[in-house]
Write a structure and sequence with these properties.
There is one protein chain. This protein has about 140 residues and is mainly α. It contains 6 helices and 3 strands, in the order ααβααββαα. The longest helix is centred in the last third of the chain and has 22 residues. The chain starts with a helix and ends with a helix.
Length: about 140
């Protein structure tokens, strides 16, 4: 092997991030902002800022800045929690919901491009190997 496996993981990640940022730039979003919108979309329960901090392992000021920008762009709305007035609940706007549907289409297209020319059998093996690599790396973090 002329390159370490980590090299390819890093390069693939960089290419994916660059492509995604290019697409998101057209709709005035960053990758971090889009990730939070998708999390809100997938999470059916009430979400507050602390939930996002934990999920993405980000600091309070970082999340606050991202949420402020999303609110200024009318992608989210924050309301005072009925359970605890110290907390604000974060809700998606109609604008962001229609945008997420577009982002899902883009993600499917990107995945198609990534696996072009790979047989179903190769893809199954690849997925199994990736799961093992992921599990190995998870164990190293403990």
């Amino acid at each position: 092997m002329d390159r370490h496996i980590g090299f390819y993981f890093k390069k693939i990640f960089q290419i994916m991030e660059r492509n995604m940022n290019k697409k998101l730039e057209k709709i005035d979003l960053t990758n971090s902002q889009a990730s939070i919108l998708i999390y809100l979309y997938k999470n059916k329960e009430i979400v507050n800022q602390r939930d996002i901090e934990r999920k993405f392992e980000l600091t309070n000021p970082t999340v606050n800045g991202i949420l402020n920008r999303l609110e200024n762009k009318d992608f989210i709305k924050r309301t005072v929690s009925l359970k605890d007035a110290r907390n604000k609940e974060i809700h998606l706007t109609e604008k962001s919901i229609s945008l997420i549907n577009e982002m899902k289409k883009e993600a499917k297209q990107l995945e198609k491009e990534m696996i072009a020319g790979i047989s179903k059998e190769e893809l199954n093996i690849f997925n199994e190997v990736l799961k093992k690599v992921f599990n190995n790396m998870q164990g190293g973090l403990k």
